[in-house]
């Protein structure tokens, strides 16, 4: 089963997975992984470019926005993994080029600093004024040598009152101005609208729109890469006109739905013994996970901000 020429329809690095027993193949299908495609690659390249930008008074900032499930958080996490913290023997502290924090579900300035500090591995502060937490956050960002701050779920800011939003935008503006490092925000279109309400930020931010997939060559490319990695024992056909059309229609071109649909159909193909995907795999009898297909899922996966003792 594992000879080199077995499963020639798969990418050589993925052939061995097709030889695994069914339950292991299903676990493989369900596992979290990164799959690169045109738009995500372009967003990563944009981030990479910002990271090497020389410091100057007005650093450019970037907003990555798109519908829920378009893969914004995936891109942010991938970028973070590509630039992991390194322990410095000289200073005895972690050098952390990329600091990622989620915008708290209620836009409270203090929680933002705490999210940032927690993502730098700093212990919780006990007692202290807001000004002091802000100061410590700022000096910690310098100590770890942060070269970029990424705030995810910036649309969460809109959950606050108008006044909270103004304060929060001020805090973001402060981070962008004070540290002389690029600030990246990710969120839905609401995030874009929120940033636009601050003229100074609006001018500073460049926007990168993660657009829903069209049924075009890029989409065919994505489906082709699925064909090459899914642990099925026969060659699939996902790029015939009919298969493409069905997948596109059932998912409205939203990345998360496409991934979920294909994963579900793949599990089905393993369990049924069909061992390949084609247009018929996406018929009406496929039992789809409801949440990812019909609802806007808000996965917050939040770290609970540490409480100050006082
Ligand atoms: N590059 C990718 N590789 C693998 N899976 C991906 C990729 N992009 C998106 N996905 C799939 O889509 C799902 C949603 O992606 P993600 O959480 O990044 O969306 P989001 O744009 O941050 O959505 P939200 O606005 O709801 O936070 C992921 O859990 C994953 O299954
Ligand atoms: Mg997200």
UniProtKB/TrEMBL annotation:
Keywords: Plasmid. Pfam families: TniB. It comes from the Bacteria. InterPro entries: ExeA_AAA_ATPase_DNA-bind, P-loop_NTPase, TniB. Gene3D superfamilies: P-loop containing nucleotide triphosphate hydrolases (3.40.50.300). The keyword Nucleotide-binding does not apply. Transmembrane segments: none annotated. PANTHER family: GENERAL SECRETION PATHWAY PROTEIN A-RELATED, PHOSPHORIBULOKINASE _ URIDINE KINASE FAMILY. This is Bacterial TniB protein.
């Amino acid at each position: 089963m594992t000879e080199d020429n077995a499963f020639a329809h798969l990418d050589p690095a993925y052939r061995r997975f097709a030889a695994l027993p069914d339950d292991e193949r299903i676990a493989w299908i369900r596992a979290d992984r990164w799959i690169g495609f045109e738009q995500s690659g372009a967003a990563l390249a944009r981030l990479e470019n910002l990271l090497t930008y020389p410091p100057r008074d007005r650093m450019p900032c970037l907003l990555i926005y798109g519908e829920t499930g378009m893969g914004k958080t995936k891109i942010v996490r991938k970028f973070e993994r590509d630039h992991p913290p390194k322990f410095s023997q000289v200073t005895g502290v972690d050098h952390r080029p990329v600091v990622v924090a989620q915008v708290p579900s209620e836009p409270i300035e203090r929680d933002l600093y705490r999210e940032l500090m927690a993502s730098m591995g700093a212990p919780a502060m006990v007692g202290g004024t807001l000004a002091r937490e802000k100061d410590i956050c700022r000096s910690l960002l310098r100590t770890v040598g942060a070269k970029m701050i990424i705030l995810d779920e910036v649309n969460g800011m809109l959950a606050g009152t108008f006044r909270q939003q103004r304060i929060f935008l001020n805090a973001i503006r402060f981070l962008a101005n004070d540290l002389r490092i690029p600030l990246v925000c990710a969120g839905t279109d609401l995030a874009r609208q929120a940033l636009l309400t601050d003229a100074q930020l609006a001018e500073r931010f460049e926007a990168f729109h993660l657009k829903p997939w069209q049924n075009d060559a890029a989409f065919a490319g994505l489906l082709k890469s699925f064909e090459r990695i899914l642990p099925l024992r026969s060659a699939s056909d996902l790029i015939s006109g009919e298969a493409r059309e069905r997948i596109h229609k059932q998912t409205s071109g939203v990345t998360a739905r496409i991934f979920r649909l294909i994963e579900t159909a793949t599990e089905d193909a393993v369990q049924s013994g069909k061992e390949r995907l084609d247009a018929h795999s996406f018929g009406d009898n496929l039992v789809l996970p409801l949440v990812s297909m019909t609802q806007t899922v808000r996965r917050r996966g939040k770290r609970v901000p540490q409480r100050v003792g006082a």
